[in-house]
């Protein structure tokens, strides 16, 4: 399981303030704490108004690159900030994201092609996010064709089923899981990535919901997630799930994490 650290996201209040105040120390610490917790990429989302977004995203990228050389997952709905940021990153980034929306195909796919980036591909089109699994699979089919035409190979593609909040639609969990499970049988060699914490928006005990959903999603075929790497219980759930699914040779990673005190209850004296 690969982890994309979610914390540098301008829609979160503290991060928005740090962006506004150009508090590079805060952003640098947020980057380093996620790296030490085991993140494989850091998601970078400026989450600001379109007229400021490019400038803010470039600033965030520079803050992070000043303290770590971890690869970045550039997160924006707009082509301009993504293109600008792809041009200044030290390592080949992941582009978050394209979809079947015509503007994305026209303006972001060429960036992925030019810089040979990894890319997250969302199961949505100009009609928005479809309600059913079948519609999402149809979009994924068309997206795979577009990416094939652009020469993007399956190993660079991270299909995202689009995880929506359970609080607003109790079918959301099942739809995301079924989309992953079906697409995994259809497309060999692609990755699956999801924004995990979306599932628990507006509900109490979010970490518990995130843990259970992640366990089910890993079983369905998820191999990458945008999540909070600082959540100790979530990290424990990932290791235990991989262990139980027989993906931890000689149970090594699980037992080492336990020995090093990285999982399990924290002892109270
Ligand atoms: N797919 C893709 N990209 C995405 C999403 C997706 N980017 C944005 C979002 N969804 C994923 N990122 C976040 C970031 C923060 C939170 C949720 C989703 C969040 N964080 C809380 C906090 O930090 O305070 C709580 C986290 C927790 O419960 O531990 O809510 O779906 N491709």
Describe the structure.
- The structure is a single chain.
- The chain has 269 residues and is of the alpha/beta class.
- It has two domains: 2-231, Dihydropteroate synthase-like (TIM Barrel); 232-269, no CATH class.
- It has helices at 13-20, 24-36, 50-67, 79-86, 102-107, 109-115, 133-149, 172-186, 206-220, 232-244, 252-259, and strands at residues 2-9, 41-45, 72-75, 94-98, 118-122, 157-160, 191-195, 224-227.
- β7 (191-195), α9 and β8 (224-227) form a beta-alpha-beta unit.
- α8 runs parallel beside α9 (206-220) and α9 (206-220) packs parallel to α10 (232-244).
- The chain is globular, with a radius of gyration of 18 Å.
- The model has no long low-confidence stretch (mean pLDDT 96).
- The chain binds (6S)-5,6,7,8-tetrahydrofolate.
- (6S)-5,6,7,8-tetrahydrofolate binds at residues 6-7, 9, 12, 45, 75, 96-97, 120, 160, 163, 195, 197-198, 206-207, 210, 226, 228, 231.
- (6S)-5,6,7,8-tetrahydrofolate is lined by residues 6-7, 9, 12, 45, 75, 96-97, 120, 160, 163, 195, 197-198, 206-207, 210, 226, 228, 231.
């Amino acid at each position: 399981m690969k982890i994309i650290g979610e914390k540098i996201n301008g829609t979160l209040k503290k991060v928005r303030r740090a962006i506004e105040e150009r508090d590079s120390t805060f952003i640098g610490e947020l980057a380093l704490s996620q790296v030490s917790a085991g993140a494989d990429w850091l998601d970078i989302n400026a989450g600001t108004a379109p007229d400021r977004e490019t400038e803010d995203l470039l600033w965030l990228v520079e803050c992070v690159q000043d303290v770590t050389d971890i690869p970045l997952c550039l997160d924006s709905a707009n082509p301009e900030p993504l293109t600008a940021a792809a041009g200044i990153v030290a390592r080949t980034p992941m582009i978050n994201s394209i979809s079947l929306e015509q503007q994305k195909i026209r303006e972001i796919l060429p960036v992925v092609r030019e810089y040979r980036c990894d890319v997250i591909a969302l199961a949505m089109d100009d009609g928005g996010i479809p309600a059913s699994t079948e519609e999402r699979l149809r979009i994924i089919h068309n997206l795979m064709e577009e990416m094939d035409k652009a020469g993007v190979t399956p190993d660079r593609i991270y299909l995202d089923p689009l995880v929506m909040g359970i609080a607003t639609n109790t079918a959301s969990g099942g739809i995301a899981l079924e989309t992953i499970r079906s697409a995994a049988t259809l497309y060999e060699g692609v990755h699956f990535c999801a924004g995990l914490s979306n599932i628990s928006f507006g509900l109490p005990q979010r970490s518990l919901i995130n843990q259970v959903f992640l366990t089910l999603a890993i079983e369905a075929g998820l191999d990458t997630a945008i999540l909070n790497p600082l959540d100790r219980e979530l990290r424990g759930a990932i290791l235990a799930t991989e262990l139980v699914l027989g993906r931890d040779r000689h149970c090594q990673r699980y037992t080492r994490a336990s020995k090093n005190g990285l999982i399990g209850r924290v002892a109270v004296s």
